[in-house]
Each structure stands twice: as C-alpha cells, then as structure tokens.
Amino acid sequence: MYILAFDIGTSAIKSILVSHDGRIIDSASYEYRVISRYRNWVEQNPDSWWEGACHVTHALMERNPEAGKQIDIIGVSGHMLGCVPVDSGGRALRPAIIHADTRSSGEVEQIGKLAGRENLYHRTGCILSAQSSLAKILWLKRNEPEIFAKTARFLQSKDFLTAQLVGDIDSTDYSDASHALLLDIHKKVYLTDLFTELGLGTEKFPAIHKATDVIGRVTETAALALGISPGVPVIAGGGDGACANVGAGITAGGKEIYCSIGTTAWIACNVPNPIIDKKARVFDIISLNGDSFGVFGTMQAAGKSIDWARGLFNIESDDAFDREAALAPAGSNGLIFLPYIDGERSPIFDARARGVFFNIDSHHQRSHFTRSVLEGISYALCSILAVYRESGAVSGLRLIGGGANSKLWRQILADVLGAEIQITDAHADSITSLGVALAAGVSAGVYKNLDEAASMVKVVDTTAPLKENTALYERLYDIYGQLYQQLKSLYS
User: Fold this and answer.
1) Number of domains in the chain
2) Model-level pTM greater than 0.85?
C-alpha cells in the first residue's frame, strides 16, 4: 500500500509516492505561473493546481503502475496566507490572492484600529500584516463586492485541492486557519466577534479539522481525472510550514530547530504552548496535531531574491548562480544586499521595505553581487535566529528546501549564523510533501502519532562554521542590521 501526497508550492505542485515505512518511492512536479498585474498584486489560477495534480499523478502512475489501485490514503499541503473564494460547487470565483500579495495595506490599518494590533497578536499568535488572509478577504469585500457576495467559502490553496478530490468545500485545518489570522489560538475557534465587526460574517469560513482527520473520499470524477481508484480517503492536510515541521523531523516540545529555504524562508521549532513575543517578531501556528504549536520567523523573499538576481544578471540556472558566487570572497568585498524585494516579515514586518545593494564600488563584479544575494538572505535569517537565541543557545539547525542543495550556501549559512547546518536523510525538496504524507500515515494507523512519524527523519550530514568567516560576517551583519533602521522612514 502507498501514501500519495501533494504539495502546492509557489511555482510548482509536487507529488510524492511514499511507502508505509516512510520511504519516498517516486516524485513528480508540474510548474505553473504566478500572475502579477499590478505592483504588490501576486495571484495564481487555482485551476492550475488541480491541472498540476492530475499531471503529476498520471506521471507517478505511469512509472509505478501497481500503485494505482494500492493508494491507501492521500494528504495535501500548500502555501499559506492565501485567499481563494469559491462557489458552492468548489469553483474559484477569481484568481487566488497568494502569500506574497501585499495590496491590502489599507485594510491592515482598518483592522489594526478596530481590533488593536497588540491585542490581535495576543489572541492569534500572528502579526497583522498585508500578507494576512484576513486583510485580503476584507480587501475583496471592499473592492470586489460582487465576488464576495457569491463566495460560499474562503479557502487556502490545499483546501481548494482537497475540495476537488472529495467534492466538499467545507474543510480547512488548524495550521492554515491560525496563520491566516482567523483563529483565537488559545480557544481554537474563529474570531467571530471580529468577523461580525468587519462585516464578514462567519458562514463563509470552512469547518476546522486536525490535519490527520479524514474529510472525505476521492470521488468518481476526481479518480478518473487522476487515474487512480475512487474511494481513497483524504485527510484535511496542512499548511506548508506546519507540514515542513514534521518532514524535517521536528517533534512537539523537542529541542530541534530548522530552517526552510524556498521562495520564502523561515526558521521554526515546535513547543507545547504558544509563545507570545513581547516585541511581536515571531508568530505561532497550530501544529498538524491540533494541539502543539510551531513558532516561526519568516522572511518574505529568499529563493525569490535568487530568481530575481538570476534574471537580472542573465544566469541560466541555480548551479550557474552558485558557480558565479563562488568566485567572490566571503563578505563580497563589503557589498551588502537587503533582500526586501517584496517587503519583509520577521522580525521587522514592513510590507513597504524594499531591496538594497549597499556599498557598491567600481571593483565589484557580477560574482560579488551574486554572492551578496546569498549572504543578504543569510543575514535576514540570522536576524530571525537571534530572536530564538534570546531563549537559549542554538548550536545547530536542520536545513530543508531547495537552498539545502547548494554546498556553497550551506557554508555561508553556517558561517553567518555561527551554527552547524544539518541535512536530513529526506530529499531537501520533498520535506513538505513528506510531512503531509507522514500525517496521512498517522491517520492510516501506520504511526502512533506525529512525533513517532517525525522521528523517522534522521540527520545524515553536517556543515560546521569556519571561524575566520564567522568573525568577518559578524562585522558585516552589524552593518546590515543598521541599514534598515536608517532607511525605514524613507520607504514610506
């Protein structure tokens, strides 16, 4: 028997076929477009997620023909902080407004005045920002009232896909609902009082489940489109951050900490109870089990900064980018990059912040710029890790996501963070989909709980910091930290 898992990423959907002992048998991916019609608008066509799910499933079934009738259970993960309005039949009423979209700054001001930013952070564990789903939904109500009126449910990306699988739009999970700024994380219920004050009502928000709850079975129509047998149970699934916690081998209340580098990047750990930071620099997301909490610090544009720089400097691949960056010395001869090309989240939460190359001189070449991009993202992650270090020493952290594939970047991260970088036995690009597959395994009775499932993941390689580079980066990081403080009044 097999577990089938999907992960809806910003640029592609990935699917993996997993055996009951946690081994990834095969994987496939399908790319789609991000739509950006105006500045600060970032959208996607939700139908491309379903089209991609059908494409990758057919690819897996063609290569593994015995699996088509032996899929035991299905799990879905997806990018968070979205707004997908659907009608009663599960059809998207407009393109999805995704996590990188920051058009709703006016709505943020309205919500902040009504609810109080500090009060909202204490209730939700999350920081009110233009990325918040709550602000996006309010923007839709104010600017596209006809779409709002037709909306039967507001879903997240993975909820849209599960609705296509089981034919039911009334499902989300605690991780997505909490990060969307829709839940009181202490009571684990919707903010119905705030919804009423904002004129949103409560009937447009789906029922909340633990990620491991079975919410339905694959319909005949969906099975035909996917090329699998109907009737396969589907779990509620979870947001990509919460799924990555499990896929990285992070247990509830354990001492493990990890860093995920994809289009966005984050540092996270799991704790039994939410942590409300006095300076509101990190946020809490309810874990897949619906009981413990992931504490996250997220930067907005990690891999996105590299993709942007690749296009800017006409570099054809990530490998070529690494080779170019490796030509420059550590510190890029004093060139510093602020990776705020789409605004920033932790620890500054400023949607208006923008990217900067600082200290350019006539001796800087393309290699210095490319390396400084890797270093600038690492400085941003260091500013997040500093918050965790206030609660105790951090000697090492696990690295997942596409960034973990770069040997050069692993060394830069180790040197900038002053911590050992650890690689697990799960492929770096499959961590999130593995996390939701393990959650599905819990639902199917393969594992006793998510902690047991997460313990299947082992550290297999490490990169230690180089002392001479660490000392250099400490000096440059100090300058990096001062740049935003000097510039923030100019961004507005």
Assistant:
1) 2
2) yes
Between vectors from CA 389 to CA 384 and to CA 391, what angle results, nearest 5°?
Answer: 120
Domain holding 67: CATH number? 3.30.420.40
In a domain, 481, yes or no: yes
Span 108-148, pLDDT tens digits: 999 999 999 999 999 999 999 999 999 999 999 999 999 99
228-249 residue pLDDT tens:
999 999 999 999 999 999 999 9
Domain extent, residue 181, equals 2-236
Give a yes or no: residue 242 inside a domain.
Answer: no
Note whether 121 and 183 are same-domain residues: yes
Q: Does the pLDDT value for residue 33 go beyond 90? A: yes
